[in-house]
Design brief:
Rossmann fold; globular; alpha/beta
Length: 299
């Protein structure tokens, strides 16, 4: 595994590994601690990147952590995809490339969806999962017709040029869903979620291109195979659910939970935990709580 390293001892190491034909970036925290206890493998939600976990990781001192960046996000290679199963296959191949053994998988939203598949595809790579408001719906929802080719979510029209990370922070700090982020977590998202503008122009653009992000959401209900992965798992799984979505918020409630309330009981060793005063942005909203629940789960 190449060891392209950034930062000092207090910063994670940025590395790249080829998995499922895609170059994936991942941040490794405290590599000297690997093998002393279970490694943690964290997988972000749609549109985010590996450094949104920084504040959670700071509340987990002494833990060896991999924070993964999915294809098309952060510093990973942007490669087109056919559906959400591709992200699961990516993560399964990356678990092999990183030689994970008995790791604790921690996923948020779409990252949790991919993590369920990866753990089923690669038994033994994960010993337990913490799924934070996973984007997994009721089985009947997966029998809907596919969206027309080229369908994009409104996220595809997001603002994609910023003068600086500070300008991005100031814009997002007063806008949902980012206004629920802990301040430092929002700064992390902005500082690590931009890249230099294409063509050598001034300013910066989002590391996850809005068009790529906009293609992901319409395919969310097309991966019925997720239930085969759910039922194949024989490891403990904690499902954390945020408050339900509010139908009065139009066109959709970005802070409401997408998780089917019956999900945990579909796992052989599933456990459900409802957090009615928290939102879908839980890892960035309350990093200390997420870290505490991870520690309690690991024991």
């Amino acid at each position: 595994m190449p060891a392209a390293t950034t930062g000092d001892a207090a910063e994670p190491r940025l590395r790249h590994s080829l998995a499922n034909g895609v170059s994936h970036a991942h941040f490794e925290w405290r590599p000297e601690r690997r093998g002393l206890a279970q490694s943690l493998c964290m997988v972000h939600a749609t549109g985010f990147h590996g450094r949104v976990w920084d504040q959670v990781i700071h509340h987990l001192p002494g833990r060896h952590v991999f924070a993964i960046e999915q294809r098309g996000h952060g510093r990973s290679q942007t490669v087109d995809f056919d559906g959400w199963a591709d992200f699961g296959h990516d993560l399964a191949a990356l678990a092999v490339a990183l030689d994970l053994r008995g790791a604790v998988g921690i996923g948020h939203s779409m990252g949790a969806h991919a993590l369920v598949q990866a753990a089923a595809y690669q038994p033994g790579r994960f010993s337990q999962l913490v799924l934070i408001d996973p984007t997994i719906f009721a089985p009947a929802d997966y029998h809907q017709p596919p969206p027309p080719p080229g369908t994009l979510h409104p996220a595809a029209a997001r603002k994609n040029h910023f003068a600086s990370a500070q300008a991005m922070f100031e814009r997002f700090a007063v806008r949902a869903p980012y206004n629920v982020f802990q301040r430092q977590a929002l700064l992390d998202y902005c500082r690590h979620g931009l890249r230099p503008a294409d063509g050598g122009g001034s300013g910066f653009q989002l590391a996850c291109d809005p068009t790529f992000e906009g293609k992901i959401y319409p395919l969310a209900r097309q991966n019925l195979g997720i239930f085969a992965s759910i039922r194949a798992l024989q490891i403990p799984v904690l499902v954390l659910r945020a408050r339900p979505g509010d139908p009065a918020i139009l066109p959709w409630d970005p802070l409401g939970s997408p998780t089917w309330p019956g999900l945990a009981q579909e796992f052989q060793l599933g456990r459900d935990m409802l957090l009615p005063d928290k939102t879908h942005m839980l890892p960035m909203e309350d990093p200390a709580l997420v870290a505490r629940l991870i520690n309690e789960t690991i024991g």
